[in-house]
Amino acid sequence: MATTTKPTPKENKFKAKPSAAKDLNELFEDGLKDIYWAERELVKALPKMAKNATSQKLKTAIPSHLEETKEHVSRLEEVFGSIGIKAKAGKCDAMAGILEEGKSIMGETEPVTFRDAGIIAASQRVEHYEIATYGTLAAFAKVLEHKDALKLLLKTLKEEKTCDKKLSALADTNLN
Q1: I need a labelling partner for 114 at 20 to 30 A (CA). Which of 4, 42, 102, 123 fits?
Q2: Helices marked H in 83-146
Q3: DSSP 8-state class, residue 101
Q4: How far apart are CA 52 and CA 20, in angstroms?
């Protein structure tokens, strides 16, 4: 029988980078930079998704969400302003991976309804990431007593949840 050794507590710890967040406020700002980058990248990705969709319903839904995403970018700029810092993007590795996966789906499927199913699946991954991020940032804003930022983040969170519901309804149609 093989024995396993438990790692010591020291082995489980990561050494923080010198640029690591030192407090909740810095973690909040880092999260804002990530989602700001993500929303701006979505503005670039959504037209490609619409161009590759085959269903008229999906071709119509994506440009509508593009306009909403542009609004999210503007709203995030307001959030940055409300906490007294300049809007700055920081590459979001999670969203970069999700967007790359979406691009891969379009390249690996023929332009028929199941490509649309893949586009919807990739879009829902994006929405779920955004919902998690905006929910977390809203919680941070509440703790940090950034009332204006909180209102703006909650508004975007609500819109992201609505978009996810629309995507689910679209997926439940004859596309899948």
Answers
A1: 42
A2: 93-107, 113-143
A3: H
A4: 40
pLDDT in tens, 112-171: 777 888 888 899 999 999 999 999 999 999 999 999 999 999 999 999 999 999 988 888
Q: In whole angstroms, how far apart are CA 144 and each of 55, 66, 148?
A: 44, 31, 11
On the CB side of 125, CA atoms within 13 Å amount to 16
Q: What's the predicted TM-score (pTM) here?
A: 0.86
The owner of tokens 């199913």 is: 117
Is 90 within 8 Å of 37 (Cβ atoms)?
Answer: yes
Q: Would the CA dihedral through 142, 147, 151, 152 be positive or negative?
A: negative
Cβ contact 90:21 at 8 Å: no
pLDDT tens per residue, range 74-103: 999 999 999 999 999 999 999 999 999 888
For the record, the structure tokens of 4 come out as 């396993």
Distance of CA 107 to the CA centre of its chain: 22
CA angle 114, 41, 131 (to 5 degrees): 75
Tell me if 146 sits within 8 A of 87, measured CB to CB. Answer: no
Torsion of CA 46, 87, 143, 13, to 10 degrees: 80
Q: Are 133 and 157 in contact (CB under 8 A)?
A: no
